[in-house]
Specification:
Length: 112
Amino acid sequence: MSSGGYFALWLATTGRVRTENCYYGVLSGAGTDQNLRRFAAVLERHSSPVLVLHGDKDNALPAALALQLAQPLQIYAGAGHRFERETGAANQAAADDAWQRSLAGWQQHLSP
């Protein structure tokens, strides 16, 4: 989540984990890579599957930047940064859906 999402995505690029979920990751490296070039250069078919979950009202990383990633991506209308920890209907709906998508992804990629 947030900076943790950034590092989770980096771990996924190594292919050493079976799957990763990236909740509203600050994928720009705290503003040092606004075009996400670092990830674009390493996210490829040998990376672990990643699900990126992001609110379109995120003030830490605009959803437009997250859209540049070639990974499954879910953008939540009206949800902000830290959507599963914030109040409001859009944040709650995003949190509920993100959890279900996370569970489904884990089941798909972690089942024996």
